[in-house]
Amino acid sequence: MSTIGAYFAYNKYKEIRVVRELEKKVEEEKKMKEQMREKYKDIKTVDDFIQGSKYLENNAPFGYNLDSLESKKYFLSKVNFTYLKEVYGLLNKGLANNTEAENTKLIEFLPKIFLN
Q1: Side-chain half-sphere of 29: how many Cα atoms within 13 Å?
Q2: In the Cβ-directed half-sphere of 57, how many Cα atoms lie within 13 Å?
Q3: Is 56 in contact with 92 (CB distance < 8 Å)?
Q4: Do the beta carbons of residue 42 and residue 86 sit within 8 Å?
Q5: What pTM does this model have?
Q6: 40: helix, coil or strand?
Q7: 22-60 tens-digit pLDDT
Q8: Dist CA 89 CA 53 (whole Å)
Q9: How far is CA 26 from CA 36, 51, 61, in A?
Q10: Interatomic CA distance for residues 80 and 49, integer angstroms
Q11: Is the dihedral of CA 113, 73, 62, 107 positive or negative?
Q12: Rounded-to-integer distance, Cα 69 and Cα 102, Å
């Protein structure tokens, strides 16, 4: 009986250890993303916009995956940078924190990028 108990105790120990390692990994990832968000808080170029969008909390607003912006660099370079900076600020702020008018601005802008 003690062998069976030891077996189950060891398995439970391994399970707890794996869960803790995964939790630690997730925490490190969150910290890294937070640091990168802080780094790209104030964008100065289109490249900063592209790189910064990878670290947003919601990098797929309204179903548009911002990870694929690298392929849209030509179009983004033609957009007025002040407007691009404003859009980045809205994305960084988060959809839930934006007003309806701000979200409408995003809804008008994002399809232009991804449908061209």
Answers
A1: 8
A2: 11
A3: yes
A4: no
A5: 0.72
A6: coil
A7: 999 999 999 998 898 888 888 999 999 999 888 888 878
A8: 10
A9: 15, 21, 22
A10: 13
A11: negative
A12: 21
